Structures are given as structure tokens and as C-alpha cells.
Amino acid sequence: MPRPYPSEFRERALELVRSGRTVVDVAAALGIAQSCLYRWKQQDLVDRGLRPVTGRAPSAELTAANRRIRELEEENKILRRAAAAVEQVVPPKERFRLVGELHADGVRVRKACLALGVSTSGYYEWKSRAPSARSIRHAWLTDLIGQIHEASYGTYGRMRVRAELQRSHEVTVGQNTVGLLMRRSGLVGLPLRRRSKRVPNQVTVTDLVRRRFHADGPDRLWVTDITEHPTREGKLYCCVVLDVFSRRVVGWAIDTTQRAELATNALGMAIDSRRPSPGTIIHGDHGTQFTSWAFTSRARNAGLLPSLGTVGDPYDNAVVESFWARMQVELLNRRRWVTRVELANAIFEYIEGFHNRRRRHGALGWDTPLEFETRHRQLATTPQLKFRGTGS
Q1: Contact at 8 Å (CB) between 392 and 366?
Q2: What is the per-residue pLDDT across 207-226, written as a single tens digit (0 to 9) for each?
Q3: Which of 97, 220, 354, 371 could form a disulfide with 215 if both were Cys (CB 3.0 to 4.6 A apart)?
Q4: 12 falls within a domain
Q5: What is the reported pTM?
Q6: 334: domain range?
Q7: What is the layout of strands, in order, in the sheet containing 305-308?
Q8: pLDDT mean over 257-285
Q9: Would you say residue 285 lies in a domain?
Q10: Co-location of 253 and 155 in the same domain
């Protein structure tokens, strides 16, 4: 029987719905059933006094109308994506082809050309000559690459785009071709700005990792850390617990303060959702949150082994530092955040909807964390799956 979603997960999902996102959109982004999110939404309306606890069941007409509304929302979303693809990444030759398809459906050529941003004379000239197989393939690839780049929040470069093409779409294409088509479309990935500032080491006796970020299976080595980011209302703090084996964030907590409860709540989510075997290492830094009695006792009661790196050295927690650096580039620094709720919702969706489910990692052979864990379970009866080192 599947374990229930953590209360923090449920509340953040509802916050996304309250912000104006559709249930269909949020459910797809987080990988949960629409019916589940609809139940949460209805119960939330009851809890907030916006809907009576009891009442007559909705009529068949109302049920059918609501179903049609959901279908129209899905169709509208598809049309918006299609329009954005046409305007931003589809070359003129491909748009000419779309004009021909629309004309076959009864749309006038002049109207179709105007909507797609091409000239009627250019369309008729294109129609009079047959396009080459290469140009057709490049047009198709450009469209697909644009969709992949958009789904990655505009963060993927040519290597991750190519990996997504091969893994999710079974398309064989060279890295140079992907780079060429991305340049033609004005698509670029977000480079990671690496920080190498260090302070002198202070040796501790509780470092069980010693920079050996290697795990032969899931839930054997966890790393944890806290980051902060400003909004106009003030700072917001986020703590994550990350499984080194799959790079999956297995626990997280978001709060307006960075007291010990922040780290303890993130650890509690990881323990409740993963049920690790005794001996799992939880590695952090010397922040007061991770040296507190509440955190260490929660870890030891679950059979975990607390570990602390040297003071002031980010390399002693390199895996989670790499995660923060990527989140800064791919999410936090891309805009100014007005409210804490707005930022908290964005962080939640980045972790659960993008990083764990869709972001491809070089250290995992370009798998996503969920794909990597699934592959490991499938190969459980074969020779042990070897982890391929630290990556971003």
C-alpha cells in the first residue's frame, strides 16, 4: 500500500492551486493523480469555510460541465504551448507546412500566414518546391528541442537536451547537431557559476564521509544543508535531505526562520517517506541546526549515524552544495520574489516537479533521480549497479 503524502507536500500543492494554477497543471507537474488533488482541494474549501460540509450531490449536468471545463483547460494549455513553439522555435519552412495543413482544414491561406508570421508569397513559393529530408528533420528536431528546453525551465544545455531526446523520445542525434539547432533558435542552457572560496579547515572527529560521496544503493548516505533567499517580505529558508546514490531530494522543509525545527522537519520527512535501514549516514555541516539535540536525537532514534564535515569547507558537503548552486541558477536568481509564499511554492515545485522527476544528471548517466532508482530496483537481481561519481 503506498504511503500517504507528507502534510507539507499536500499544503504546498494546495498553495499552487490557490495561486491560480489549474488542478490538471499542478497534478501533472508533481506526478500525482488529478482525483487526489481534487479531493484535497474540496476538503481545503470545507476546512476554510468556503464550502458547506454537507449538501446535495452535484447534478449530472453540473458534473458534465465540470468535466468539459477540465477538458477545455487541457486543450487551452496545448494550444498555448503550440502557439509559443510556433512563435519562438519553429523555422519558416515548418510554418509553411502548418499553413498547408490549416488550409486543408478550411482555413484561408492569408489568415493562416498572418497567424503564423509568414508571407503568402513565401508560402506559395515553398509549396512549389519539395523540401529536403534534412530540412524536414531539422525542423522537427527544432520543435522537439524547444519543447524539451521549455520543460526544463530553460536550463538545459545541449548535453542534457540530447540525453532527453535519446532517453525519452528515442531520437538518435549528434551533440553538435543539437547545439547547432539550439543556436539557430536562440536557446542556451544556464551555466553553473562555481565558487571555490574556502576557509582554513578545522578537523572534527565525527566526519564519517571524508569527501567520499559514494553509495552502492539508495538510503545509505544522505547529505543535508540549509540555504536562504530574499523576498520583499524578508528571507525564506529551505533545508533539504538528499540521497547521494540517486541525487533525489528525499526530505525538505521551508520556513521563515532557520531554527533547529527546520532541519528536524526535513529529516523527519526523509525518515517517514524512505524508512531507511539502521546505519544510514546523515551528513551535514557544523550549523547549530545539525548539532542540536533535537536533530541528533531524531537521527539516532531512527538508527541513522550523524556525520559532520570540517568547519567552513563547502567541499566537505559538495553534493548538496552543487544542488544549491544549480537551484540558484535555475530558479532563485532568475527573478525577484515578492512574497515568501510565492517563493516557497516555486521551491516546492522545483524540488518535487522538476529536480526529482525530470532533471537529468550527468552523474547518473543522464537519468533523472526517479529513473535511476527505478533502474536500480529492476536490476536488483543482477550484479550490483555501480554509482558513477559526483555530478551536477
Answers
A1: no
A2: 787 777 788 889 999 999 99
A3: 220
A4: no
A5: 0.61
A6: 221-378
A7: 249-255, 234-243, 221-231, 281-284, 305-308
A8: 91
A9: yes
A10: no
